[in-house]
Amino acid sequence: METLMEDEEYNWREVILPSLIPKVAEPELERETGERRRGRNILIAIDHGPNSKHAFDWVLLHLCRLADTIHLLHVVPNVHNEILYETTQILMEKLAVEALQVSMVKTVARIVEGHDVGKMVCKEAKRLKPVAVVMGTRGRSLLQSVLQGSVGEYCFHNCKSAPVIVVPSKEAGEESMI
């Protein structure tokens, strides 16, 4: 496994979200506080699993408000793998459209290269300074998490720039919260 130094620059690719997502003017919130008017950044670590989608849905329903920006982050071993990039881009486009339809929030997507997912999530959190870092669980048992470690646990202990929210896995048979 390759060690990433704290000062070392890392590879990433911005995901270009489609033009079918309309550009929405900043909401007029006369009675809102300045913090809400500026909007907040919320970082969501995603992958292609159902628990990641569940965490995304949880953010839309419980954490998002007008003028917020959701930052989707997917960590991959190689950002130049076109098949993986295109598959992830399709997922992120779908999530961006859903975020706009459900919560009327802007979405920014980024694919980051790295072998240690936890370190990369913490590094992105340090760069963005979000109000929260949200991720789903992998559905491991307590013993498996202790023996193999967990990205959520790593981020919980090492992410100093934002609180980490680990959304528990969804119940069997539940397709989506939305």
Automatic annotation (TrEMBL):
Residues 40-168 form the UspA domain. InterPro entries: Rossmann-like_a/b/a_fold, UspA. Signal peptide: none annotated. Coiled coil: none annotated. This is UspA domain-containing protein.
